[in-house]
Amino acid sequence: MFSVKKSFFCVLKILPNISVRNFCTGHTALDKVNLMGRSLLTLRDFGSDEIKRLLWISRDLKHRIKHEGQYLPLLQGKSIAMIFEKRSTRTRMSTETGFALLGGHPCFLTSQDIHLGTNESTTDTARVLSGLTDLILARVYSHSTLEELQKDSSVPVINGLSDLYHPIQILADFLTLQEHYGCLSGLTVSWIGDGNNVLHSFMMTAAKLGVHLRVATPKGYEPDGGIVQEAKILSKQFGTQLFLTSNPMEAAHGSNVLVTDTWVSMGQEEEKVQRLKDFHGYQITMQTGAVASPDWTFLHCLPRKQEEVDDQVFYSPRSLVFLEAENRKWTIMGLMVALLTDYKPKMPMLKF
């Protein structure tokens, strides 16, 4: 069993029939947060209370639908255009099934199905889809495509993944950690791998939730310099630590959560041989965990390859990867509900 001491002291009051690890009482600024009509291209644009509100709504929907068996047609009569330039398992399935479960109609569109950027400008596509749907989610190669969509769309736009950010993944990661540890503030997350879009989203979010971030990337694979500077400002603002190194064991030292991702993203296949060489020594193993906190856990956004993390860690009780994958559904549902309705959670507020 992992230590729950940290979680216990995060709790303000014990509520009857509700786990003390996950909830707190009282009303805060979270009650007044309203995100209707907003777009989510990056969590850089969302404040601390806004991110917490999204996680609270997501956990509430999960509890009411999965555990209480309620049917909540919150998006009945609404539709979403799902644009996919890149293949996907979790993003497609979580969005498509989640929107349908809430009573809405999802429309899956690949680059072979629509004219995005080919025969029709992104501007025209945004205007057309705005007249036909209530929400647009786009999983694209270039972040600039999302910015163009948002500029000319009259409905909210969600980043389903771009070369710069992957915000919906990070919402699922932090919901998973909140469920497991009971609260987020004071946790240390260690990223060991590529300085990619997922790491960028961690860097724009962790400090706002009181989470310390330790990052190890090989030389030449560091995160974007501008994002690093913004993350340093956020860490100073929220009183958290941001530590960057090229030594994986140094990054893992004392950490509660070890995280990695693919070393070869879609579109980088020609770089595979060189990347595998450059990332030598970055595989997460039980030896990596030996220098982490006794309660350490493991996250990976999937799909996973063995060079990134060995089977002993990946399939161990410390691995939260399949709960993390499931939470992609609840967090995208929470996000879509928050952007399209004024939904108010019914369960007690989460403890952060």
From TrEMBL:
One GO CC term on file: mitochondrial matrix
Pfam (any one): OTCace_N
SUPFAM superfamilies (alphabetical): Aspartate/ornithine carbamoyltransferase
EC number(s) stated in the UniProt entry for this protein: 2.1.3.3
Biological or metabolic pathway of the protein: Nitrogen metabolism; urea cycle; L-citrulline from L-ornithine and carbamoyl phosphate: step 1/1
Keywords: Amino-acid biosynthesis, Arginine biosynthesis, Mitochondrion, Transferase, Transit peptide, Urea cycle
InterPro entries named among the record's database cross-references: Asp/Orn_carbamoyltranf_P-bd, Asp/Orn_carbamoylTrfase, Asp/Orn_carbamoylTrfase_sf, Asp_carbamoyltransf_Asp/Orn-bd, Orn/put_carbamltrans
Residue stretches making up the Aspartate/ornithine carbamoyltransferase Asp/Orn-binding domain: 186-338
Molecular functions (GO terms): amino acid binding; ornithine carbamoyltransferase activity
Lineage: superkingdom: Eukaryota
GO BP annotations listed: citrulline biosynthetic process; L-arginine biosynthetic process via ornithine; urea cycle
Compartments reported by the entry: Mitochondrion matrix
Domain Aspartate/ornithine carbamoyltransferase carbamoyl-P binding: 38-179
Family of the protein in this entry: Belongs to the aspartate/ornithine carbamoyltransferase superfamily. OTCase family.
Matches recorded under PANTHER family: ORNITHINE CARBAMOYLTRANSFERASE, MITOCHONDRIAL (PTHR45753), ORNITHINE TRANSCARBAMYLASE, MITOCHONDRIAL (PTHR45753:SF3)
Subunit annotation: Homotrimer.
The protein, known as: ornithine carbamoyltransferase
